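#struct-queue
[09:14] JT: dropping the first one here, sequence first, then the C-alpha cells:
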Amino acid sequence: MIPETVRELRPIDGFLKLKAYIQESIIGQELLVDRMLIALLSDGHILVEGAPGLAKTRAINVLSGGVEADFHRVQFTPDLLPADLTGTEIYRPQDGSFVFQRGPLFHNLVLADEINRAPAKVQSALLEAMGERQITIGSSTYPLPDLYMVMATQNPIEQEGTYPLPEAQLDRFLLYVRIDYPAAENEREILRLSRTEARDGRQEQSRLGEPLSQLLIRSARNEVLDLYMTESLERYLLEIVLATRNPGKYGDDLSRWLQYGASPRATIALDRVSRARAWLDGRDYVSPEDIQEMVKDVLGHRIVLSYEAEAEGMSADAFLDEMMSRIAVP
C-alpha cells in the first residue's frame, strides 16, 4: 500500500526531493546526478565513464535508496559467464525437474561495474535485457520488471585486459556520460562528509523520508511524454540526427570526418531526454536549449568517426559541436 504522503506528492516535487537527497551524498557530480534522473524519467539505460573514485558506484546505490526498487551490483571480470547475469536452470534430483534460478539482471536497478572488463559473450547477455526487457533461457522467456534501468561504468585509464563495447551494445544505452574530477571546494565538502560518515555512519534515508513509489515514477514519465514540442522544434531534432547520416549536406569536411551516423533509436532517445530535461527544469514545453544540451550524451557514442578524423585529432564531441553550429536553430 502506498503511504498517503507519497500518494499526495506531485511527481515534480518528488523528483526534486530525490535530486536534493542524492546531491547530499554525491558532491561535485551534478552532471551525473542530473543524467541519472533523466535516464530514470526516460525509461533508459546509462553508461558512465570516469576515473576511479568519482562516486559512480555510490551514485546508483544512493539512487536505489531513494526509489521503491531493488538494486544489485555486478562486478564485471574476465572470467564472468553469461549465466552469472541472466541466471540458469538448476536440476532437482528429488523429482528430476529443472528450476530456473534468476540472476542479478532481474532487479529493478542494475549496476554493471567496469563493464568493459568482461568479454563480448558476457556483454551481449545484456543486449536482450536492455533492448527487449526480457531474458530468454532455452525455450522460455522471462519478462523483466516494469521499472528497469542498467547503469554501466567503465574506467578510461586502465585499458589492458579490457574489451571495448561494440556499437550494437553502445546503441542500447540512452546516454553516455563522461565525468571528471570535482572542483577544489567540492572536494573539501567530500572530505568533511567522509569524516561525518566515518563517525556517525550513513543516514541516507533519514532526510528523504519515504522513497518515491513506482506509481509516482510512472506518472512522472507520462507527464514527460505529454510536454509540448512545436513542429519546428521537432523538425530541428530530426535534422540533427539526419545530419549524422548525410553530413555532406553541411560541408565536405563533415562528410570526410564521419563514417557512420546515428540510428532511429537516437531520434527517440533525443526526444525523450530533451523532454525530461525540460520537465526537471519545471517547464511544460521543450526549448532548443534542451535539445542542444543533450546532443553529445545521446549521439556521441552512436556515431563512428572516420580514420581521417582520428588522425586529425577530431573527437566525437568536437564533431558534434561543429555540426550543430551549421544547423539553423528555429
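[09:21] JT: and here's the second one, same format:
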Amino acid sequence: MSEMLDRAVAQARRLPADRQDAIAELILDAMEDERRWDAAFASSPDVLERLATQAEEEDRQGLTEEFDPDAL
C-alpha cells in the first residue's frame, strides 16, 4: 500500500462506521468506473484510431477552429 493510501486508511479508521462505509463506497465506485473505462477503450481501439484519423484530416482541410478557453 502506498504511504498516502496508508495515511488515508488510518484517518478513515478513526471515523464512525457509517462514514467509513461511505468512503469505501466512493473508492469502490471509482475503481469500478476506472475498470469500465479501461474495458471500453480496450475494446474500441479501431474506433478511436478512426476518430483520430478523421480529426487530423478535418484539421488538414482547415475545418477546425483554434481552441479559445476564454470563449467558455
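[09:30] RK: nice, looked through the second one.
[09:31] RK: The chain has one domain: 3-61.
[09:31] JT: good to know. Residues 3-61 form one domain.
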